[in-house]
Amino acid sequence: MPHLMVDYSANMEDRVDMAAFCDALRRSAIETGVLPMPGIRVRAFRADHVSIADGATEHGYIDISVRLRAGRDLATRKAATQTLFETAKAFLAPAFAQHSVALSFEMRDIDPDLSPKYGTIRDHLASGDAS
């Protein structure tokens, strides 16, 4: 159940196609080989009110947070972190080249004993009916 949450300053919407960015992260998560496709959810949240660095309004940020069920060793999590972070950096390269932008990333485990789950996505994927 990897959940990727993208928190970003409102001025990034003029600089980045957020829907395409979310999809690039989703595809990259699948390509890690350790984050199960049926559980991947990527979503983005715009922050309309921010104050960054010296307060200049041209500064922007994107913060990516990944929550996943505990059980993967550190080396596996580090490799997935690096893959996803490099995907984000590559996608955002045009914005970095033209704007003042900060990118941050954090991956953290969720205690499975305190995080019950229920869903039918896997059932629909198996049957070929994703509607």
Written description of the protein model:
With 131 residues, this protein is an alpha/beta fold. Helix content is 35%, strand content 26%. It has three helices and four strands, in the order βαββαβα. The protein has helices spanning 18-31, 74-98, 121-127; strands spanning 3-9, 41-47, 60-69, 101-110. It has a four-stranded mixed beta sheet with strand order 2-1-3-4, covered by helices on one side. β3, α2 (74-98) and β4 (101-110) form a beta-alpha-beta unit. α1 (18-31) packs antiparallel against α2. The longest helix is centred in the middle third of the chain and has 25 residues, at 74-98.
Low-pLDDT ranges = none
Q: Assign a percent range to the helix content.
A: 25-40%
Sheet/helix structural class: alpha/beta
Count the beta strands.
4
Order of helices and strands: EHEEHEH
Summary?
It contains three helices and four strands, in the order βαββαβα. The protein has 131 residues and is an alpha/beta fold.
Strand and helix layout:
Elements: E1 3-9, H1 18-31, E2 41-47, E3 60-69, H2 74-98, E4 101-110, H3 121-127
Parallel strand pairs: 1-2, 3-4
Antiparallel strand pairs: 1-3
Question: What are the key terms here?
Answer:
alpha/beta, 4 strands, 4-stranded mixed beta sheet, 35% helix
